[in-house]
Amino acid sequence: MGTPTPLRPPRPVVKRTARAILLELDPDDPYGPASIVLIKRTRPDSPHPYWITPGGGVERGDRTVVDALHREVDEELGGKVVDVVPAFVDTLSHPLPHPAGEGGAVDDGTLVEPHGVKVQHFFVCRLAAMDLARRHGPEVDDPNGEYEVVRLPFTREGVTSVNVVPPRLRAYLAANIEGVRALLAPDLG
Asked: Where are the beta strands (DSSP E) in 27-168?
């Protein structure tokens, strides 16, 4: 037998995000119709919008990833969530910052060359309240394009009718509508 190939060291986690698979359900009929709340994102340099879940980066002041989720939902939607349940993790290549002048970086420390990963934590949660007049943060204060809050039916047809990103989330949701809803079932525990 040949010499085994040594294991590669894990890629460093460069960024973590907390994102809400945010469902609106009737508390008196948890198995009835449901909507998912998404943000339709249109960049100024592209005519092609895409839809994202509310959320964003975990910041130094966030005690936990779930704390980051609550902060982001408050910023982006003026919202509150309850019944927060981990559902899906997506790992993507992500560039590392290089000190100025090293490794092909430009002097302003711009990110170049993918060496690490971004881990996106997706949580299923129930929308408890939303007041779009309370929105704040960079997406509202200094927007780069449009951020429109939309509701879609939480069905296979609903989540595949638009360009939900990342694509692995779109596929996960389309394949697991019933399972995602079951994560919010009253008898889950």
From this structure: 29-42, 50-52, 55-57, 79-96, 112-130, 146-153
Q: Where are the alpha helices (DSSP H) in 2-118?
A: 65-77
| CA atoms of 96 and 42, how far apart (whole Å) | 26
C-alpha atoms less than 13 angstroms from C-alpha of 55 in its C-beta half-sphere: 29
Q: How far is CA 130 from the centre of its chain?
A: 18
Q: Residue 15: which H helix or E strand, with range?
A: strand 13-26
pLDDT in tens, 32-67: 889 999 999 999 998 899 999 999 999 999 999 999
Distance CA 85, CA 81 (A): 11
Residues 101-155: pLDDT tens digits?
Answer: 444 444 444 545 557 889 999 999 999 999 999 999 888 888 889 999 999 999 9
CATH architecture of 13-182: Alpha-Beta Complex (3.90)
Pull the structure tokens for residue 147.
């951020």
Smallest Cα–Cα separation from 19: which of 96, 95, 92, 84?
Answer: 84
Q: Is the dihedral of CA 186, 162, 57, 128 positive or negative?
A: negative
Q: Which token pair is 122?
A: 């997706």
Any idea which residue has 């309370």 for tokens? Answer: 134
Q: Going by DSSP bridges, is the β-strand pair 13-26/112-130 parallel, antiparallel, or unpaired?
A: parallel
Domain boundaries, the chain: 13-182
